[in-house]
Every structure is written in structure tokens, then in C-alpha cells.
Amino acid sequence: NPETGEQFKSQTEYLQHLARQRVNQNKKLSDLIDNRLKELGRNQSWLAEQLGVSKQAVSLYVQGKSKPKGEKLDKLFGVLNINNMKLPKSLDDLLRG
Description:
The chain contains 5 helices and no strands. Helix 2 crosses helix 3 (about 55-65). The model has no long low-confidence stretch (mean pLDDT about 80). By secondary structure, it is mostly helical.
């Protein structure tokens, strides 16, 4: 891996590494959502209504099992007032921080 200098013995090992990275990124986003909801005194049902998605979808975001993409992610940032914070250029930048 040129970015980290890590060496992988097989494609399977590399794919497992990528899967772990995705889980870590989803966890960071889920923590961010959960913390912002608490700071705003809101709940997942409120967020679902604001985003126009099901309560189940928001639950999956908070559990780190799914993440919003595209316009839904932009709307999530807006609804949770994340855009008023120092917003990184991309979700990857946010999750790296």
C-alpha cells in the first residue's frame, strides 16, 4: 500500500484491511451523528423526519452499519449543523480527523 507503506501478503489480506477501514470510518460517522443529536437535544426519529428517510435508516447510520451518500450526506451535515463547524473537504477527510 503506497499510502501507508504497509505490505499485504495476499489480496484477501488487503481486502480485509479495507473492510476494517470502512468499519472504522462508519464508527466515526456514527459517533459524530450520535454526539450531535445529543448536543442538539434531538432523537433519531427527528433526524429521520428531517432527512426524509426511515427511522431504520437513521438507526443504521448511528450503529455504523450504513452511511448516507451524496445529497443525503449533505443534508445530514446541514440538519446537524455540522456545516457550521470547520468542515473538511470530503467525508474521508472528516473521518480521518
